[in-house]
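ESCALATION

Customer reports they have been waiting on this structure for their group meeting. Please prioritize. Original submission:
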Amino acid sequence: MSTFLVAAVQMNSQPDLAHNMNQAYDLIKKSAAEGAKFIALPENFAFLGDEKARLEQAGTISDTVAESLPAWAKEFNIHLLGGGYPVKTDNGKMYNRAVLVNPGGKFVASYDKIHLFDVELSQTEHYRESDVVQGGARVAVIYDIEGLARIGLSICYDVRFPELYRKLADAGAELLCIPSAFTRPTGKAHWEILLRSRAIENSCYVIAPAQTGKHGKKRETYGHSLIVDPWGTVLANAGTEPGFVIAEFDHETLNDVRRKLPSLKHRVL
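Update from on-call: job pushed to the front of the queue and completed.
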């Protein structure tokens, strides 16, 4: 298939599993009705709130995701990316895991976030993801969806580490997935330029479903889910409201960019 439609779902997830899963289902249903064959959910789609509460509920959350995503993928005949949800580890922490489910309801790829968000943005806004999250194996995860595209997996803060995306491109990725829950201040400053950079330097499409708005009492995210083509052109921007955006993945465009500007072949380091 030379072209197909991809959808980035933008959510306002809360510390309420049932609410979030209902919201996700509704947006998947609507984007599938518009013809999307690959639909991506953002990071923390199933639960977004206090990290300790997310860890405490990780077992219930992961069980619900494991049951729901395959059912939805089968119902709508889509490839579905669960952009990041908690999975308990053996050491009392959790992985932040993204999974890809095929239209038959099978989990065909998974990636555990490797770059953890430990930052101090201000005296009142700071994050220590590593307190509760265990980094995953330091490998580049891609999956070849036969007839559609080769998918490269990552999550949120990973976008600041271009070496990961070069490894994904070297492994053959054509569509880079960057599901996120970007903070408002970092999103305003860096979100679009980082995503466009990852697309341009790797001659890949980028799909970045995001969280938006306020979550619980303290957290606020930037929104602006994007779909970017290999030239760095923003094909779709979801703004700040929950919903979804759709754009076309075109193999001819991908190949044309790589032919006209073969930077990946010109590397000397």
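Sent to customer with the following note: Helices lie at 17-33, 51-56, 58-76, 162-170, 184-202, 251-260.
Escalation resolved.
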